[in-house]
Amino acid sequence: MPNQLSETPDRLADQESTQSATGTEKKSVFIKTYGCQMNVYDSDRMADVLAPAGYAETLDPATADLVILNTCHIREKAAEKVYSELGRLRALKEERERHGGSMTIGVAGCVAQAEGEEMVRRAPIVDLVVGPQSYHRLPDLLKRTGNGSRGIVETDFPVEDKFDALPALDKKKTIARGRTAFLTVQEGCDKFCAFCVVPYTRGAEFSRPVANVIQEAKDLVAGGVREITLLGQNVNAYHGEGSGGKDWSLGRLIYALAEIDGIDRLRYTTSHPRDMDDELIRAHREVDVLMPYLHLPVQSGSNNILTAMNRQHDAASYLRLIERIREARPDIALSSDFIVGFPGETDQDFEDTLSLVGEVGYAQAYSFKYSPRPGTPAAGETVQVEEAVKAERLARLQDKLNIDQAAFNKSCEGRTMSVLLDRRGKKDGQLVGRSPYLQSVHVDAPDAAFGHFAEVTIDKGFANSLSATLISTHRDQGANQT
Ligand code: 5AD
Ligand code: SF4
Question: Looking at the domain covering 416-474, what would its CATH class be?
């Protein structure tokens, strides 16, 4: 998985051919995406919703008519980063205006949702602020800015379904976006972990109806996609309306998606331990295309801290769950998120986290220092852990996680695996793809193999990737990748 919350400076590497198909005046939009995969998905969908309004994507903010920052608010100084980016954009906007041009600046995503009006007060160059549940309204909002309105703020959680309002996927765009795709099936969260802003920025849990998800998956496959990652802030809480008006669980949805001809790989992220039900675990045993990788955040190994975090599980129940998942799929690679230095975390609590890590043996993981998020219960706690202590704990935890990850990668040496070669390597003649366990695998391969599955033998496992030798490629009849 690309780093869950890494910044993706731009995500447009292969999209220069995307053009609006209408007769409206041609304009360009630059979208910068921060944060998780949900935002990557939303940025693509913003581009889709803007295309009929005449906006083609560009890689160059300096020449763009519209710049959108699709922001993330999950941790540390998110809003400050956005304000400094806006400072840089201000210079670009002023330069354009000096030359008689114009540039519209929009802020979308979770910082937009959290800051709302404050954003236009602090950064008057912002023309519109649009929350994650409202971006389908972008064309209308842009019309209003075109008519001279400034500082429009649209951060309601609208009753109408955003997903219904979004256009169907455009086949050409899907082809340009490559062989792997994200598909948001669920949004929002009702869990209210004490550290987390998501329930406030993304709102209450909402699951897309099964029929919509299946249609979007079919459209992705028609556009050449072979691997789909189902997304949701709390994806395994999925309970979309299915046949007969009954709610379907994520497990049931996965069984149905696996039937679609052309889907070779399915993944899902991010899950909550409380929502790993029997059907989903059974899917890991029975559904071939469900990849043996699971991101199942535990956050802490201490029961005191798990209770204070309002995680609704303890360390023992998490470990029992892992045991059941491993029984179903013995080779599954496990991943997690950890927070160190949550308010009140003692040395012993931290040792409990290290000991849980030792018991599970993660194939990879993300770990963070606790950062108070305004408006969340934990931010008001008086016993905050000192910065130096957090830093020291994080370093110790990461050392351990890195050792485990390297060991997992090393254990893959000599194995034969299937890899979907969907990126070009830095070296000439090298292609890169993901293993079933989500590791990056580098292979010397002819360019004709690009966009196809290959059988490879793993030669070497490194800290963060694998290198392999090509055995064979499986060219399929899907969309042509260039
Ligand atoms: N401080 C530190 N890490 C956080 N996360 C979420 N909120 C915070 C916070 N306030 C981490 C959690 C979550 C991941 C997406 O980000 O580990 O699982
Ligand atoms: Fe945030 Fe995940 Fe907890 Fe929901 S389950 S509140 S998204 S950490």
Answer: mainly beta
